[in-house]
Design goal:
This protein has 4 helices and 8 strands. It has helices at 35-50, 132-145, 150-153, 160-168; strands at 55-57, 67-71, 77-87, 91-98, 101-111, 113-119, 125-131, 156-157. The longest helix is centred in the first third of the chain and has 16 residues, at 35-50.
């Protein structure tokens, strides 16, 4: 059955696990923002929401391009192409997990405040400051684009009992 004109068909993408080699490669810069990139962005947003995630990098769904999506609020999603950041504050440890490393959690030091530069989905240059959870999410996702997983940065992994006590506090 054909999709009616004007209707966008979204697709859930399969999230790769930490053993997949594409997760260890540096993603390529986005040079041409075409309909395939726009469709990928929409699919990534749907996939992130379906997986109850707060961020997703394109290489996590098998596409080695420098694209991330991140939950920036209740109904707001940040879409960043070719993102980079600079630290504006000290590092602080925090608990992280990852859609590509299901069931694992670790304590990871991240900068508390960062300045991000990227392109939006139309190719317009944007820059902004992020702090707290959003800064952590963006650093985690930009790490993905560089072939780095949170388990590489974790100062220690948490066992299930520790995680349970973290949730209760």
């Amino acid at each position: 059955m054909a999709v009616p004109k004007g209707v966008i068909e979204l697709a859930l993408r399969r999230i790769l696990n930490d053993e997949h080699p594409v997760l260890r490669d540096r993603a390529r810069e986005v040079k041409n923002i075409n309909s395939a990139v726009q469709r990928l962005i929409d699919d990534m947003i749907e996939t992130m929401h379906d997986a109850d995630g707060v961020g997703l990098a394109a290489n996590q769904v098998g596409v080695p391009k420098r694209i991330i999506v991140a939950a920036a609020g209740e109904d707001e999603v940040l879409i960043l192409l070719n993102p980079a950041f600079e630290a504006l504050d000290d590092e602080e440890p925090g608990v992280e997990g990852c859609l590509s490393v299901p069931g694992e959690y670790g304590e990871v030091p991240r900068f508390c405040k960062i300045r991000v530069a990227a392109l939006d989905r139309q190719g317009k240059k944007i820059a902004f400051e992020a702090e707290g959870l959003l800064a952590r999410i963006l650093q985690h996702e930009i790490d993905h684009l560089n072939g780095i997983l949170f388990i590489d940065r974790a100062v220690r992994m948490l066992d299930p009992e520790e995680l349970k006590s973290e949730d209760e506090s």
